[in-house]
Structure formats: structure tokens, C-alpha cells
């Protein structure tokens, strides 16, 4: 895995849109069914909007019905870090970019085979790179 990316809060604010900053740096969540990538079906790679680290291949994306882009596995197990999140009176598993530590979303144990996991991500935390034909 690449070295950690450490920027000041001012540098993050310059680099990201207000929505990206809210999600990636403040742990925010976009409203369900509003994200740019929720219904996207094209082949490609989903990258971290904060640092460009490749996170999820489109062939692991599926329609979970949750209203957020959902994947059953990351591109590389070292690309996404998981941390316990006890905010909002719940215990959940938070997904963070391993390079810039940006908040991506949460991981739930109700996904499809082969992993049984649902990486429920915010579109604002992702950029999409289409697959070349």
C-alpha cells in the first residue's frame, strides 16, 4: 500500500468540493438515492475522490436497494481500512481510504456471495474512471 497522505484541513478544503469535504473529512453521509454513482452500471474503477487511490472495481458493484453505491469487495484488501464507528448510538464498521483516511461509508454483513459483505459507499467519496475499450 502507498504511504499515507497527510494534508492540512486547509489543503483538504482547497482540494475537495464542500460535499466531498463533508463526507471524506467530517464523516458525513449523502442522502440516499441522490449520489451520482448509485445507479451507474458502466465498467471501470471507483477511486477515492480525495486522493485517487483505486478502491472498487465495477464488477463488484451491485444494486443493494439501499440508495448508495454498494460493492461486495474492494479492488485490493489493503485499499480500504475498517474501523469501529459508535456514532449515532449504533455500532457499525466504517470504511476509510487506506491512503488518505477519508470516510467512504460503512460495511455491513448483508451482502451477496462470494463475500457476504456490503460496502455501502457515498458517491461523494468516489471518482469513477471508465474502463478503456
What does this structure look like?
- This protein is an alpha+beta fold and 133 residues long.
- The protein has a domain at 42-130: Metal Binding Protein, Guanine Nucleotide Exchange Factor, Chain A.
- Helices cover 12% and strands 30% of the residues.
- It has helices at 9-15, 18-26; strands at residues 44-48, 54-57, 61-62, 70-71, 80-85, 92-97, 103-108, 118-121, 126-130.
- A 6-stranded antiparallel β-sheet has the order 3-4-8-7-6-5.
- Strand 3 and strand 4 form a beta hairpin.
- The protein is globular.
Summed up:
The protein is α+β, with helices and mostly antiparallel strands.
Query: C-alpha Rg, in Å?
Result: 14 Å
Helix content: 10-25%
How much β-strand is present in the residues? 25-35%
Q: What structural class do the secondary elements suggest? A: alpha+beta
H/E series: HHEEEEEEEEE
- What is the rounded distance between the termini? 28 Å
Alpha plus pi helix count: 2
CATH superfamily of the domain at 42-130: Peptide methionine sulfoxide reductase
CATH topology of the domain at 42-130: Metal Binding Protein, Guanine Nucleotide Exchange Factor, Chain A
Give a topology summary.
Layout: H1 9-15, H2 18-26, E1 44-48, E2 54-57, E3 61-62, E4 70-71, E5 80-85, E6 92-97, E7 103-108, E8 118-121, E9 126-130
Antiparallel strand pairs: 1-2, 1-9, 3-4, 4-8, 5-6, 6-7, 7-8
Based on the model shown, name its key terms.
globular; six-stranded antiparallel sheet; single chain; 12% helix; 133 residues; 30% strand; three-stranded antiparallel sheet; alpha+beta; 2 helices; Metal Binding Protein, Guanine Nucleotide Exchange Factor, Chain A
